[in-house]
Amino acid sequence: MINKEKPVFIWPMARTGGTLFATMLGVHSELAMSYEIYEDCLCEVKGEYMSPVMARDILLQSAIDAGLSVEPSDLSDAQIKKWISNISQPPFRSFVARAHRGALDPYILIKTLEEFIETGKGFELLEHRLDFIEILMKYKAEFDGKTYWGGKAKVSLEVLCNKYPDACIFMMVRDGRDMLTSRMNVGAFDKDPKLIASEWVEHMELFDRVKKTHKGVMHQVSYEKLVYEPVSELKKVCNCIEIDYEESMVGYEQQDLTLLKNPYGHLSATQISKGINDESIGRWKTELPKEALTAFEEVAGEKLREKGYVVG
Prior knowledge:
By secondary structure, the chain is α/β, with parallel strands linked by helices. Helices cover 51% and strands 9% of the residues. The strands form 2 sheets. Strands 2-5-1-6-7 form a 5-stranded parallel β-sheet, sandwiched between helices. The longest helix has 19 residues, at 126-144.
C-alpha cells in the first residue's frame, strides 16, 4: 500500500547530481522515483498553460500523426520516440519525453489525464498542476508495487513544504565550481560565473532557512560523499525515509533502468550508465577558466569553505 502522506522529493539545482541520487533511490524495493516531470512544461509555450483536455487531445492526435494506435498497445521504443517527436508543442513534448524516461509512457499519460479531467481541475493553478504530477508519481509507485513515491520537484521550496508538510525533502550539495564547469560545457545554461555562484549560495541558504520550520525531514546530500562513500551516505538517507538500506542502490547500473534505455537527450545519461565514478569531481581544476574561477569564488568562496571545500 502506498504511503500517501510521506512523499520523497529531491529539490533540484541543475548539474549537482540530482539524477544520480534519484536513480539510486529509485532502485530501492520500497521507493519509486520520477525524474524531471516538472509542472512548468504543461504548456504550449512557456507560461501559457494548456488544459488537461488539450493535453490529452494533443497526445491522441500525435499518435494518429505517427500512424500509431490510440488504444493501449505494446509499442517499441522507436515507435514511442516517433509518437513523442510528433508533438508540436516543445514544452509539452519535453514533459512527455521526460515522463517516458521514468517508465510513464504516453498511454499512461492519456489514462491519468482522463482521470484528472474527471476531477474538474485545470492546469491554470500551480496547485492543480502539482496535483497532476502527484497522480503520475503515485501511478508509478503503484505500477512498480512500491510503498513510497516521489521524484525531483522543481518548484518553490516554500510551496513544496506547504503542500507536503510531512515530506522528506533532499537537496544535493556539490562543489559549486564543478557545477559551474558542467554548466559551461553542456546544456543551454546561463554561463555567467557570478550569477551561477549567487544561485548556488542562495539555493543552500534557502534550504537551511526553510528547514527550521518544516515539519518533515529535510536533509542535504553530498555529491562527493555519494561517490566516495556511497554506502554510508545512502544509509543516512534511508534512515530519513525510514526504510532499510539495500545494496542494489550502489549497483544501480546493473538494473533495468528506463532512463538508460530512453534517455531522450538527458545530459547525465551517459555518466549515469557507467555506475558510480569520480570523473566529474574536481574537473574545475583543469577545465574551468581562471577568470571564471575567480569570479565564482568572489561570490561563493565563504559558502564553499562553510561546506568543507578548499578555496585558494
